[in-house]
């Protein structure tokens, strides 16, 4: 059976998440993360004999041509694989096949076939890049200043038309969370939030002024990364492989440690040369 989740399901969702290898902060095992999705997205659970065996979640985000439904999570207890729970969860979360939809698929062998079967195509890899922020040279003319999540949400909404202040508030409440605005010539050109603990610390989400040319789009990411302060001097950022910031980061010694696959009903729901997304919430 598939039904909508409530706060009473947090512990059961965490058990499923842990069974699939998700542990720690800002995963399905973290009640703060699932609680945020319950408040601002949609979460469903699959049950078998009243036992929770899977969960999924969606969140409405801004795409290049309007709002998009993003699949944030879809996990089934490995002992229950092959019984149709994942497909049933997708049918509940994405009932209308005409809705623009996207997700960042893991490399699990069941994931890509399932998503293609419901109309998504695989377009490009999302690279999990990590490196030494001390090796990132701050580009000339850029300033990066702390800002409130509300300010960051307002700046981003001016570019996308969708208020994501609630997401920035949630990210900023994570360990080492901080929201910031990057400006060029005194004008805001990028705004986002960094957060995370240990090896997971880094730039969670950065919105860029869509009018920026490629060189300045790359510089905005470099400016923000150079301004971060981590305990060991290292950070993480997730970038589409075609993003103009990838090349200078690789040249600075940053390396991909993992990747997801961007899957969507249309390739241009996200701009691969401007998006700096959270794998969970874009």
Which terms would index this structure?
single chain, Aminopeptidase, Acyl_CoA_acyltransferase, 27% helix, Acetyltransferase (GNAT) domain-containing protein, 12 strands, acyltransferase, 12-stranded mixed β-sheet, acyltransferase activity, transferring groups other than amino-acyl groups, 2 domains, alpha+beta, 282 residues, 8 helices
Helices, by number, come to: 8
Shape: globular
Instruction: Give the terminus-to-terminus CA distance.
Output: 29 Å
Q: Give the tally of β-strands.
A: 12
How is the biggest beta sheet arranged?
12 strands, mixed
Low-confidence stretches: none
* Strand order, largest beta sheet: 1-2-3-4-5-12-6-11-10-9-8-7
Radius of gyration: 18 Å
Tell me roughly what share of residues is in helical segments.
25-40%
Q: Hey, roughly how much beta strand do the residues contain? A: 25-35%
**Assembly state here?**
single chain
Structural class: alpha+beta
Domain N-acetyltransferase: 1-165
Keywords: Acyltransferase, Transferase
Protein name: Acetyltransferase (GNAT) domain-containing protein
Organism: Micromonospora narathiwatensis
